[in-house]
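Here comes an entry:

___
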Amino acid sequence: MVHNTFVSNISPEAYPMVGGDGPHSYAKNSIYQEAIVNGSKGMIAAGIRKTLDLKSLRLDTSSTFKIADLGCSTGPNTFIAMQNIIEAIELIKYQDDCECEHDNPSGLEFQVFFNDHSNNDFNTLFKSVPLSQKYFATGVPGSFHGRLFPESSLHVAHTSNALPWLSKIPKEITNSNSPAWNRGHILCSGFEKEVAEAYSAQFKNDIESFLNARAQELVPGGLLLLLTPTIRDGIPMFSTPEGTNFDYLGSCLYDLANMGLIAEEKVDSFNVPMYYPFLGELMGHIKRNKNFSIEIMNTFTHPLVHMVYSAEFWASLSRAAFGGLVGQHFGYQFVDRIFNYYSTKLAENMSSICDGKTQGKIELFVLLRRN
């Protein structure tokens, strides 16, 4: 049950996760993201039961309930998330038809749209679709920062761990003549005010575009489910484990440049197109968008926050997520050397990565209803 849907919304800056199912692939190295999907299952189920009104959506027994996962990557986490949502919908009481909950009370069929950038490994994704799925699967390539679907065509849209990815790198941080030049860092670490302002402004534009696009695509009463990492207000990125990891990756690149293995100019121009917003910052953007009402907002700690990580674990996660980005910028022939050195450096400094820094980053679940 796989159909292909093609759209013209393709971002020029698209860096998908490492494809395939090999030892460095996202499919084999996304347990950290999977924990968020599994850890939020109860919240999502309760939120759907509380806020989704099938009757108001004017669905009848011949209708198809349409769900989109935005930023799906290659699986398997997207399949878990979609199954969780479908199970929650199936357990809703359709009060006009029954007095008790049972499987699929409304007689709905489900169609799930799996969205990611056009150069995402959709082949691996669709080869992995569970045989027991209860939906028709459709691929939708394109950037979720713009329109992907016809007006009022979706009932539920979901995204997990994808919102921090920006549509592009802010121009200021790559300009050596700008006070926001991010030389010496590869992310918005929080050290320089001008860099933080440039990243924050880009995120503001992107989240506004994201919400406006979903407002056009969702039917009135439809739900938008957001799972995303945020940072506690007032705590800089470098005070989180993720921030420390990015700092070590950046220092590895400069070490390799000092060894003459890669060009320092290439390191100076390398930036990761991600921004972890402050909790209050993100909620402010959401509240200003009048197309949605905030039905539920929950913060929670990552389910694996107390797990003892090895350097190899962190390096494998990072390579699965950023290996393509690193390879595209520095050359794929350097990817092994860069991440092997990164793993070694992490092993030498593991005690400093999570020491006293576990409280900086928090996970956020927001359920929005289309007005």
Notes: The longest strand covers residues 218-231.
